[in-house]
C-alpha cells in the first residue's frame, strides 16, 4: 500500500479488518509483523520519521489534569514548535476548531464532540505534511462533519497527504483520491472510486404534472414525492426511461431534470469484499 | 542527543509535575509529612532528655519514609496511566523516542520529588531552628543524601514500572528500599550463613542492591560527627552511578516492551 505525496487514501472495510492497525503502523506506534512501513523513505519506527505526521484517533486519549491549551502546547512542543511560533499555532488551531473560549478548561470537562475537535486541533497544530485519521467524523454533529470535511479539503488542496479510515463511505468518496479495501488484514482492492464500476440502477426525474396519477404507470408502485411549485420527484426504473421521455415529448408532463441513480458505493465495495452478491461482472479483484 | 530531545524531555517532565500538583493525594502526602514533623515537637516535649535528638531523628525518619511513599505513588502510575489512558498513543506518534519518553517521566518525578522534598525539608529546618538546635554542615549533607535516595528510588521505580504491574512494582521497590538499608546486615548474615545456597543468595542481594545505608549520614548529623569530604563525594558518585544504572536498565527493557 502506498500513499503518494499530496494524495488521499481512504481505508475501508468491516470491523476488525485492520484499518486502525494500518494507521497505527503508519504512525510508528507498533512494529510491523513483517515487511516495513516507511514515511518519506524512513522507517515509521524512527522518531524523525514522525516529525511531519499528525494523528487523529477515533477516541481522544487525554490527560484529564491538563487544560486544552496546555495539552496542545505540550504536543506541539513534542513536534519541535516553541516560543511565539508555538503560541501562534495553538491560537490558530483553537480558532479553527472554535474552541478558543474553552482553551482554559480542563480536557475532561469537554463534550465528546468538543474533544474530537480538540483532537483535530492537536493533529494540525504542528502543520504536518501527513495526516493520519482514524474515523475522524466519529462523535461530530452534522455541522462539524461539514466543517471537518471543509478543513480536510483545504488541507489536501494545500498539498497535504491524507491516510484515513472511515465507516462512513460518503466521507471516503468525498475525501479520497483512492480507496484501499481491507479485509482480514489484507488489501483486497485499491483504486480510485471513479474507476469502480457502478451500475445505473434507475433514474430520478423532477417533473411538473397536474395529476401525480400520470406517473403511476412509470414508477412500479413507488409514490412520487411532492416538491414545491407543483413539482414531483419520481423514481423511474431503467426500463421505463423511454416511456417517461415519450410522455414528456407528448406534453403529458413537463420534465425539469433527469439524472441516473448509480449503485450505492457500499454495495459495490461489499461485492468486492465478497460480502455481497458477488464480484462485479467483468472485473477482476486486484488483491 | 538531538536538539529536539531536551524540549521534549522538559515538556514530558512538566506534564508529570502538573499532574502531581493537581493531584490531591500528593498534596495530602506533603501536608501530612509537615504535620508529622509538628507532632515530633509534642513527642520532644514528652521526653525527659534528648529532646533535640528526637526532633532531628523524627524529621529524618519522616523525610526518609515520605520519600519512599511518594516514589511508590508516583512510580506506580507514571507508566501505567500512560498505557491505561492510551495517552502514550499521541506522545509516541510525535517524533518522541522511547528513551526520551522515559527520561521525561524520570525528570518529571525528579521535579515533583524535589518540590515535595523542598517543602518538607524547609518545614523541618524551620522547626529545628525554632527549637534553637544548632545546624552543622552534616545536617545539610544528610538532607542532600536523603534527597539523593529519593531520586535513586525514583530511577529504580521506573525500572520496575517499565515491565511489572503496579502491585509488583510496589513490592519490589519496598524490598529494595528496606534491603538497601539492611545491606550491611545482609553481608554479615551471608558471612555467617550455614548453607552455601543461603550464602550465595545473601551475597547476591548484597552486591545487586544499592547499599543505601552507606549513603545515610543522619546519625553523623545528629551527633555532630565529622565525615571526610572524600567519603561524602564518594557517596555522591555511588548514588549517581546507581541512578544511571537503574535508568539504563529501565530504558533497555522499555525499548523492547510492546506498548500497544
Would you mind describing this structure in some detail?
The complex is a heterodimer of chains A (287) and B (260). Chain A contains 8 helices and 12 strands. By secondary structure, chain A is an alpha/beta fold. Chain A has 2 domains: 8-194, Rossmann fold (3-Layer(aba) Sandwich); 200-262. In chain A, the strands form 3 sheets. In chain A, strands 4-5-6-1-7-8 form a 6-stranded mixed beta sheet, sandwiched between helices. A 4-stranded antiparallel beta sheet of chain A has the order 10-11-9-12, with helices on one face. A two-stranded antiparallel sheet of chain A has the order 2-3. In chain A, β7 and β8 (186-191) form a beta hairpin. The longest helix of chain A has 16 residues, at 142-157. By secondary structure, chain B is mainly α. Chain B has one domain (5-256). Chain B is built from 12 helices and no strands. Chain B has helices spanning 5-21, 24-46, 51-78, 80-84, 88-92, 98-130, 137-161, 166-181, 183-191, 196-208, 218-222, 229-256. In chain B, α1 packs across α6 and α2 packs antiparallel against α3 (51-78). The longest helix of chain B is centred in the middle third of the chain and has 33 residues, at 98-130. The model of chain B has no long low-confidence stretch (mean pLDDT 91). The A-B interface holds A 24, 27-30, 47-51, 53, 55, 57, 59, 61-66, 70, 74-75, 77-80, 82, 122, 132 and B 4, 7-8, 10-11, 14-15, 18-19, 22-23, 85-87, 89-97, 100, 258-260.
Secondary-structure topology with pairs:
The complex is a heterodimer of chains A (287) and B (260).
Chain A: E1 8-12, H1 19-26, E2 38-39, E3 42-43, E4 53-56, H2 68-78, H3 83-96, H4 112-124, E5 130-134, H5 142-157, E6 161-165, H6 169-175, E7 178-183, E8 186-191, E9 200-208, E10 225-227, E11 231-236, H7 241-249, E12 254-262, H8 265-272
Parallel strand pairs in A: 1-6, 1-7, 4-5, 5-6
Antiparallel strand pairs in A: 2-3, 7-8, 9-11, 9-12, 10-11
Helix pairs in contact in A: 2-3, 3-4
Chain B: H1 5-21, H2 24-46, H3 51-78, H4 80-84, H5 88-92, H6 98-130, H7 137-161, H8 166-181, H9 183-191, H10 196-208, H11 218-222, H12 229-256
Helix pairs in contact in B: 1-6, 2-3, 2-6, 3-6, 3-7, 3-8, 6-7, 6-12, 7-8, 7-12, 9-10
Amino acid at each position: 500500500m502506498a500513499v503518494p505525496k499530496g494524495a488521499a487514501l481512504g481505508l475501508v472495510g468491516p470491523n476488525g479488518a485492520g484499518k486502525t492497525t494500518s494507521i497505527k503502523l503508519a504512525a510508528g506506534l507498533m512494529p510491523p509483523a513483517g515487511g516495513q512501513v516507511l514515511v518519506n523513505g524512513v522507517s515509521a519506527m524512527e522518531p524523525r520519521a514522525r516529525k511531519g505526521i499528525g494523528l487523529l484517533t477515533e477516541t481522544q486519549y487525554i490527560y484529564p489534569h491538563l487544560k486544552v491549551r496546555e495539552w496542545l502546547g505540550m504536543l506541539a512542543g513534542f513536534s519541535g514548535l516553541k516560543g511565539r511560533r508555538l503560541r501562534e499555532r495553538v491560537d490558530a488551531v483553537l480558532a479553527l476548531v472554535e474552541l478558543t473560549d474553552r482553551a482554559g478548561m480542563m480536557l475532561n470537562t469537554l463534550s465528546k464532540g468538543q474533544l474530537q475537535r480538540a483532537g483535530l486541533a492537536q493533529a494540525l497544530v504542528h502543520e504536518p505534511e501527513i495526516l493520519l485519521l482514524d474515523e475522524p467524523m466519529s462523535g461530530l454533529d452534522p455541522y462539524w462533519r461539514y466543517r471537518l470535511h471543509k478543513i480536510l479539503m483545504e488541507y489536501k488542496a494545500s498539498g497535504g497527504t491524507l491516510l484515513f479510515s472511515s465507516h462512513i463511505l460518503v466521507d471516503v468518496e468525498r475525501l479520497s483520491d483512492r480507496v484501499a479495501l481491507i479485509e482480514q488484514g489484507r488489501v483486497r482492492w485499491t483504486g480510485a472510486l471513479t474507476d469502480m464500476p457502478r451500475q445505473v440502477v434507475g433514474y430520478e426525474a423532477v417533473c411538473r404534472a397536474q395529476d401525480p396519477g400520470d406517473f403511476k404507470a412509470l414508477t412500479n408502485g413507488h409514490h412520487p414525492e411532492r416538491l414545491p411549485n407543483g413539482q414531483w420527484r419520481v423514481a423511474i426504473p431503467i426500463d421505463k426511461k423511454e416511456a417517461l421521455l415519450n410522455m414528456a415529448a407528448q406534453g403529458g408532463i413537463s420534465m425539469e431534470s433527469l439524472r441516473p441513480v448509480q449503485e450505492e458505493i457500499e454495495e459495490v465495495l461489499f461485492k468486492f469484499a465478497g460480502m455481497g452478491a458477488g464480484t462485479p461482472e467483468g472485473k477482476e479483484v486486484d488483491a | 542527543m538531538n536538539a529536539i530531545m531536551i524540549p521534549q524531555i522538559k515538556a514530558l517532565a512538566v506534564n508529570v509535575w502538573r499532574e502531581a500538583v493537581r493531584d490531591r493525594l500528593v498534596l495530602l502526602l506533603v501536608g501530612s509529612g509537615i504535620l508529622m514533623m509538628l507532632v515530633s515537637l509534642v513527642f520532644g516535649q514528652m521526653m525527659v532528655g534528648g529532646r533535640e535528638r528526637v526532633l532531628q531523628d523524627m524529621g529524618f525518619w519522616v523525610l526518609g519514609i515520605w520519600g519512599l511513599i511518594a516514589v511508590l505513588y508516583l512510580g506506580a502510575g507514571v507508566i501505567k496511566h500512560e498505557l491505561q489512558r492510551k495517552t502514550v498513543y499521541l506522545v509516541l506518534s510525535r517524533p518522541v523516542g522511547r528513551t526520551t519518553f522515559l527520561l521525561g517521566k524520570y525528570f518529571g518525578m525528579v521535579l515533583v520529588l524535589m518540590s515535595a522534598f523542598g517543602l518538607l525539608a524547609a518545614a523541618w529546618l524551620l522547626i529545628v531552628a525554632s527549637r534553637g538546635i544548632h545546624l552543622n554542615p552534616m545536617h545539610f549533607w544528610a538532607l542532600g543524601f536523603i534527597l539523593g535516595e529519593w531520586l535513586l528510588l525514583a530511577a529504580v521505580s521506573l525500572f520496575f514500572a517499565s515491565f511489572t504491574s503496579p502491585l509488583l512494582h510496589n513490592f519490589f521497590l519496598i524490598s529494595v528500599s528496606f534491603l538497601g538499608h539492611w545491606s550491611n546486615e545482609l553481608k554479615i548474615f551471608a558471612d555467617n550463613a550455614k548453607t552455601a545456597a543461603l550464602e550465595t543468595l545473601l551475597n547476591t542481594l548484597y552486591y545487586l542492591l544499592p547499599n543505601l545505608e552507606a549513603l545515610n549520614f543522619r546519625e553523623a548529623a545528629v551527633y555532630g560527627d565529622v565525615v571526610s569530604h572524600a567519603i561524602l563525594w564518594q557517596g555522591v558518585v555511588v548514588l549517581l552511578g546507581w541512578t544511571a544504572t537503574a535508568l539504563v536498565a529501565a530504558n533497555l527493557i522499555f525499548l523492547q516492551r510492546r506498548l500497544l
